[in-house]
Amino acid sequence: MEKITYKLDKTEVVIHSGYKTIGGNIVEVKYPDGSLIFDIGLNIGLHNQYFTWPTKPHKGIDELVSLDIAPRVDGLYTRWLDEGRTPDIEYGVDTHINGVFISHLHLDHYGLITQLNRNIPIYMGETSRYIMEVKIRQARNYRYNNYKDLQIDKTFRNKSHIVIDDIRITPYHVDHSIPGAYSFKIETLDGVIIYTGDYRLHGQEESLTMDFIEELEGEDIELYITEGTRVHDVEYTTEMEVREKLKHFMEMEESNLIIEFSPLDIDRFLSILSAAYETGRSIYMDEKYFIYLSNYYIYDSKLRKKLDKYGYTDICRGLVDIDRLRDRKRRELIEEISSYIDYIDPSESGDIDIILGIDRGLDMCKAGKLKRDKIAIFSNSEPFNEEGEIDFKKTINWLTKFNIPSYRVHASGHISPIELKDIVNRLKPRDIIVIHSEYPELIKNMLGYE
Predict the structure, then answer these.
(1) Shared domain check, 262 and 280
(2) What residues contact 164, with CB distance under 8 A and at least 6 apart?
(3) What average pLDDT score do residues 183-207 get?
(4) Do 430 and 362 belong together in one domain?
(5) Which of 165, 67, 59, 180 is closest to 114 using CA atoms?
(6) Average pLDDT of the chain, as a whole number
(7) Average pLDDT in the 299-320 region?
(8) Does one domain contain both 146 and 167?
(9) Are residues 197 and 117 part of one domain?
């Protein structure tokens, strides 16, 4: 894990994690009175070389640091008591870190949050906050990995201002493959620093990213810290093109469709939902989709209007075996949701139409529930895995067993090289650091910086 440091007189930027690798972002901005952290991500690839969640979990931040999965950052982490059951709230009271800002809720940007020093306040967007609350409500309190006593009560909205000591932070809502993603303008005594998080210009909400860029035009930007995820073999597909491809598959009336994507990717779901609405199809959601998508519907009024436009509560149903669901927290969540959106027991379903969730679709195949020709569609955010993963090889084996062909229909959640070049030409920052990338030097040189 490579750490880099960049100095602007009395201000210092430290990239603790996320340089020359995709994911695991931890960026520290140090100033005379303390420091701020932007994202506290887990490097999923490194983590999965040693651990399998939840069957073979890690034993806390000390083990992750010793394996070079997480960086050593003074004052950032908690200490575990009671054999990993309880975070020590007295530990790290004197930390110099005055806040952690979360750009969005993909694991590679917030996945170490359970290891955080409980004395540090956490700032996140309002949408991220309610997604986090859903996660916490479902979470089991595993040893060395729980949400107890985290300070998650501070939220922000687009273009609001947070002042901490002599630093002013302005979050800008940008388009990404999860709602509530933000970039940040960080105004220090030594100039303006931009941290982009993850963003794009080819999704359904590209106007958000454009607004962010237009707001920054004319700013005197000392340092632009940008993601550079996509470099080689880049497929440039827009979310609108994804929608049209999905609609094409749905017009094949004699087929069952099994679709896998991140339940946090509301843009992708809107593409699926609108195509289903226009082709007269019905959607049946596995439990994880039912919980997250329905919570979007219940708690986010703007998203509810978009979902209502395409008949969410009319054409969508959950697939939940409630009698066999042992997890009390998940049962309670599903019962709350059911007052808004119906669900059915998979064993009582007939030959259903579109299924969200590859595992549920395969279970329906094993039970002989799907009678038509079947097509699997992988529409996951990125192949490098931002939010969980499926065992792809085993999945392909099962699809082959049931004679099911599979297709990839996808638009990236990340900025393309040509989009990034246009942004940098417009903003003209004095210098650039490229993170969340395997080729930071290549991108920096491409953008005209040494």
Answers:
(1) yes
(2) 34, 36, 98, 99
(3) 96
(4) no
(5) 59
(6) 93
(7) 93
(8) yes
(9) yes
